Every structure is written in C-alpha cells, then in structure tokens.
Amino acid sequence: MAGDLGDTIARLRAAWMAGGMARKHCPPEWLPTIGDGPPAELALAALAGQALHAVFRPAPGGPLVTRDPLPPLAHPPVPDALRPRVRRLVAAYPSMVKHLLALLAGRGFTVHPADWLPTQRSDPPPALYAPWLLWVNGGAAPPRSPAKPLVADPALAAELAQLLEVVSIGIVHRRKRLKIAKLKTAPQTARRLDLFAKVTLGALAAALGTTSAELVATAPTGVPPGIAAFAAMVAATGTPDEHRRLLAAMLDDPECPLAGTSPLAATLDRAEAAALLPTTLRRETTHRLTATLNLAGAACGLACLPDIEASPSYKLIRERLAAAALSSPGQEAHIVLALCLTELGLVAHAQAAQSLLEMCIEAGLPPADRRLDALHLNIALTPEISA
Amino acid sequence: MALARNAVEALAPDQSALTAAAGLLKAAKWPVRARAGDIVWGECQGSGANPYRVAADMADGGAKCTCPSRKFPCKHGLALMLMCAQNDADFTPAAIPDWVTEWLGRRRKTSAPEPGQPKSNTIAPLQPAHETPPIDPEAAARKRAAAEKRAEQTRRTVHAATVELDAWIADQLAAFPAFLADLPTRCRRIAARLVDGRAAALASRIDEMPSRLLPLLPHERIDAAIAELGQLVLLVRAWRSNPADAELTCCIIAAETREELLADPAAKRITASWEVLGERVATRRDGLVSVATWLMSLGETAPHFAVLQDFFPASAGRRTGAFAAGDIFNAELVFYPSGAPLRAVIAARDPNAAKRVWPAAAADPLAAHSEQRLKAPWALETPLLLPAGRICVDSQGRHWLRSGATCLPLDSAPPAVTLGAELTAAAGLWNGARLSLIAAHSNWGRLSFGG
What we know:
The structure holds 2 protein chains of 2 kinds.
Chain A: H1 2-17, H2 31-34, H3 37-54, E1 65-66, H4 83-92, H5 97-106, H6 130-136, H7 154-162, E2 165-169, E3 175-180, H8 186-196, H9 201-207, H10 212-217, E4 221-222, H11 224-237, H12 240-252, H13 270-283, H14 290-296, H15 305-309, H16 312-325, H17 332-347, H18 350-362, H19 373-380, H20 383-386
Chain B: H1 5-11, H2 15-22, E1 32-36, E2 39-44, E3 52-57, E4 62-65, H3 75-86, E5 92-93, H4 98-106, H5 137-174, H6 176-181, H7 183-196, H8 200-207, H9 209-213, H10 218-241, H11 246-252, H12 258-263, E6 269-283, E7 288-297, E8 305-313, E9 328-335, E10 344-350, H13 366-375, E11 382-386, E12 389-393, E13 399-403, E14 406-409, H14 416-419, E15 423-430, E16 435-442, E17 445-448
Parallel strand pairs in B: 1-5
Antiparallel strand pairs in B: 1-2, 2-3, 3-4, 6-7, 6-9, 7-8, 9-10, 11-15, 12-13, 13-14, 15-16, 16-17
C-alpha cells in the first residue's frame, strides 16, 4: 500500500512542481471523494500531507556512522550541584579554562563533557584529558607543534649571537649574564625572535663562547619579549635541569619580568610548582595573577592565605572591594574585581578561599554574587571545608 | 523598618498600576510567598502559562519582577509589598533563593520613600473592598446578547477570511514553484488579510511557516510545504463545519484566557509528577517572543506531555522562565481543548515530587505521531519519548538519532558530547521532517539540547 501511495504522492508532487493540476494524476477511486476544480486540489493537498506524515517514515540514504563512546577519565566529573558554577566560569573566562581544569584535577575531579570538551584550538589541557583529546580528534593523536631542530645550526646560532651580548657580572663571584638589548629596527627585532624559535640553547651558548650552564645560571636582562623568547628557547631545547635553573634565576631576580617564565614550568611537578607560589605571588605587580597561574599549572588550588596576602594584587583587591561591591555590571570596578576574585579562587588553597569569601561577604558582596563563583567552587571541591 | 501600606501605595508609578495590584491581592494567585527579614519574594500566576517571579525589599521599596511590564514597580511588585504590609504572617520564613540573591547583588539600594508623600498627587490610595453589588438580571441578559451578537459577527468575518484562504491555497498549488521561491512575502500577505479577518491565530501560524520550511533541504521543503498547505485545508474545513469547537477556535482565532480555561469543568486535568524537559524560545515575525516550556510526566505509566506557552514583546528584553530544565514538581495541569491536548496551564503546584523516573518509551515512538495526526491533523509537532539509542552521522554530515528501529534526522548539530554518549532515553519534538531533541538521559547523566 505504501508503495502505491508513494507513487501517487510522487505524481501529485511532480504535477504541482510542473505548475499543473494534480487531479488528473490521482487514482480514479479518489475522484468521487475529492470532487472537481480548485477544491479537488485542496483535498489532494490535505490527503498528501496527511499521508506524508502518518504513513511514510524517514530513512537515511546511506549508512550511518556512530562515533566511539567518549571514554571516561581517571577522575570523575564534578558533582552536578557544582556544574552551574563551572559552566559560568567556562563561559565568562575562556582563557582561564586551563587553570580551572588544573584546580579540578588537583581536587580529584574533571569537568563534565557536556560543559567543556577540548578542541584542536584550545590550550593543552592537563594530561588526564588525553583520552578526550584523542576522541575529539577522531582517534588520531593531535597535531604536534613543529619539533625544534635537534641538530644545531651553527650559522643561525652565529647570526643570533650577533644580536645578543654576554656580560660579566659580580665582583666576588663572576658570572655570565645574557643581555637582550633593544634593537634599532623592527625587522631586526622580528628576526631575533624568529631565530630564538629555531636555535638550540647549546648552539647559542657555543656561538657566544660560553656554556649552556652559564647561560641559565643567571636571569637574562633586556627587553621583555626577548627575555620571554629566550626562556621559550630554553624550555624547548634545554634539559629539565636547565629549565629549573633558569626559572629559579628569573624568579630570584626582581628586575626580571615574570611574564615570560611560564614555558619553563612545564616540567615541574605539582610539589615543585607549589613551592614557587609564594615567590610568584609576591613578584606580581598588577592586580592580575596571570604569571602566577601560568606557572602554577597543576599547583592551582594550593596557594596559602599568607602568600596571597603578601601579593600586591590582594592589597589592590581590598582597596577596591568596597567600591566594587556597590558597582554595576559593566563598570570597570565590577569587571576588575570579578577577574581578581576568579583568579584568586583558582589559585587559592581551600582554606584561603574560605577566608577570602568571608572577607568579600563582610565587605558587602552578596553570597550568591557571580563574582564569587570561583571561590565557592574551590571551597565546595573540598568536602571537609564545605560541610 | 518595613514599609507600611501607605508607603507602598506611594511607590505606585500611576493609578492603573495600583488598581491592578489590588486585583492581585488574593492568596490563590500566589502559590509561593516567602520572606527573610525585609526581603520578600513570591510567584504570581499571571495570564501566562509560567508564573512571574517577584521579589521586593520592604526596607526601601525596591522590587523586581519577571513580567514584561515597563512600570516600576509593576502591579505584581506592588501587590507583593501590599500583602506583606497587611500581614507578613502570610509569608513563610525561608532561605533566600539564588534568583533573589542575584537581584539583590545587582541592585543599587535606594532610600525608602517618605510615607505620606506619593510619587504623583493624582494617585488615590486603595479603597477598602466593598461588597459586590447585586446582579441585575436584565443588564446581564443584555450583556450576554451583545456578546453573542459580537461572536456571531466575528464568526461571519472569520468565515469569509477562511474562504479567501482557500483561494490563496489553490493559487499556491497552481504556482507551486513560485510559492516555494517566495515563501516569506506570500505568507506575510495572506497573514495580513487573515488578521483583518480576525483570524489572528491562523495568521500567526501562516506567518511563521517560512521559519519552519526554509531550514529544510530543498527536496524536503517540497513535501513539508505540501503538508503545511494540506493541514491548513483540514483546519479551516473542520472549523467551518463546527465554528463553536473550542480547539478549532483556538487554532483559528485565539485561545481562551487562563481564567476561562481554569473555570471550564470539561477541561482535561492531569495531576502528576512533571519534569521540565527544556525550553524553546523563538522570536516571531510579529515581534513577539514565544517561550515554550515542555513538560513530561514521570513514573511507570506512558508519558503525558505538556507545553506551557508564553509570549512577550521582543522589546521587553530577555525574560527568564520560572523553571529550569530538569526541575521536577507535582502539579495539576489543565489542558486547552484539543483532540491531542498539549498546551496547558498550571492550576496547582507542589515542589515535592512523588516520582522522579522517566517512563519507558514505546518500541515504536512514531506511532504516537501517527496517532496524534489522526486526532489533530493540524498539529505542527508531536512530542516523542524515544528508547535507547545513539546519535549518528550520515555521509553528508547530517545528524540522526538511531533509536531502536527508528532513525530520525535532527534539526541541528547536537552538542559534541552527545556524539559519544550512549542515550538511554531521549525526548524531543517531531515535526514530520526533523526531530528537535530537548533532553536525554545517558551514561553521562542528563543532557540538555539547545532550542
């Protein structure tokens, strides 16, 4: 029946698409029912429409492909009650997702896949999300960034060396320090940055007439982008020990900008990263904790209250809290406080987060204020605090 | 110190707001009234399907309401404060809910108004309620006769409009390719004629037809357009043969009011535990925003579906619904008349739900659609509960839900996680060509799909 009806509908459809009357294409047994003239066309439309809905069923034209199931991760997703806060944080602060993931991982949780899944363009998530990254890429390993040359190119290293200087410092203890001075022209500056991405630490040291150990023993000096490029070069081509030594030197030098240090933290374990938090918090100079969070990595959620209170950021927050409590969304004070509280919420230990939350509420922020989402989440992820 | 009655009256922006607020001073209209200190809040059942959420600060007269009124405070805010000023014992002490705290966090505190200093010297205080005057039988009879005369005139006008619609449908079938190529203009023209002919609901349906047809692939659009025109034919013929039918009047002219529906003893009522599946929000061509909140009954028996339908002017800005996807409550729903009732209003609600489990899906979910088409062939979509399945992709990148022996194409790409999820059940809306998923249960828990 469906076959005959299907043929009839096809003829009716073809007649209408050709701009003609469909009545002459319907089965003869329909004619007494549908009548004549325009009412017949209307009746045929009603019959055809009803048949299309009630009799025929959709069918795919070819095979349907099902993806492999999304694999579970080593940690469970956050409890459902916390997912609204996670969703809001992911939506409001996409650049901080990696820190949020680190905080969750440190407390034994992952994000729920309906709230966030990695993409090819997202910042590399903690290693624990590797199965999802593999699944998102259709089972293929994600494309790797171009590998650094394993064989040093002396010509490029020599060229880079000409754009740098090694100076001797110290009176009793003589040491070498790399000087990355401001260059005269923009093309030279661009070329130097490009060379930092292509040359190995060992090749550069040789071209400068020194050793890798000497180059990483002291923090470089000079223009911040150059310092960051040098740190990235060491992170890409140096040994883990060289990473640690240069990082320690840069953190110990109050003149060295904090911003370029994060690539060196990649090989730190959680305990090593946590040990750096007091220093980085103290070294921040603005209300943002960007460098601290980037260096913290897996140590998100471990900063203690005394270290937070020693940071310039905390002092700024205290000054702005009263004004921001009365500000409206969209006003600068509101936005700044939201950013600061979110960053603090991601880096603080749960007990520190509890103290910060109490301070904010005492200053006039309502407990359900969205700016406190990160602090609430931090506390809730530690059952003994939130109970 | 909380505001007194005269101080609340002084807050009214105009007389009509205060008068309207007086009409809301009935406990039956407020299924929820609670307070914490000076902060009071409640839910007021207005003319819409969803209750309005209202909050106020009795210390300074600040108020917030989800209704589309531009007045501040609106009649709901005034009514809430008046009731509290009259007798705050009617307000249950409770913890401040998140939606109230969020409002408190955003508002700038204002100073409390001075009592006895109204905003406008043209606003008169509310007078004590008087006894209703006795009904004059002759006046009532005259009123009834006038209403019947108006109704008969409306029927004649609408009848003429439907005859014009028939001619329009015949013209579109005779020039079908041109109709498909120029859907928005042609539909808008006949919709305007139907509005003139007082067939407002029919006009809206046709005005929105392009939004239903244009997202389809060209070959699907042909059959869908035939089906839409065929449904219009059935609808107007059914109405012409029975113009007094409530369901058909709702589809052609306008739905009865919430009050009329609740007062109708023949209206279908279902008391059950209901889950909010999700919301569908759409901006219509007439400038109204349609908010459809879909519910499904829970428990072991076959599911009932219901939709709470509200409309707001787009200029009123984003409105938040009273319910969130996944909310579960016990409620008595009263359904608008239909051969396959779906649109409903909430008559009574209790947040404590007895049942919390999705019912089992039928082995053939499309059988429900076929059955609905027999009872209400003009229905635009059928809610379906589908058994366990997976979301798949065809060779052209289109997404399908394969559920048992049924494969249904989806109306849009679903969230990435659903491609890797094993769905144990899914609920969605089937319009004959596409499935719009609303919610599902899976190995990753409850999943929501955007509207």
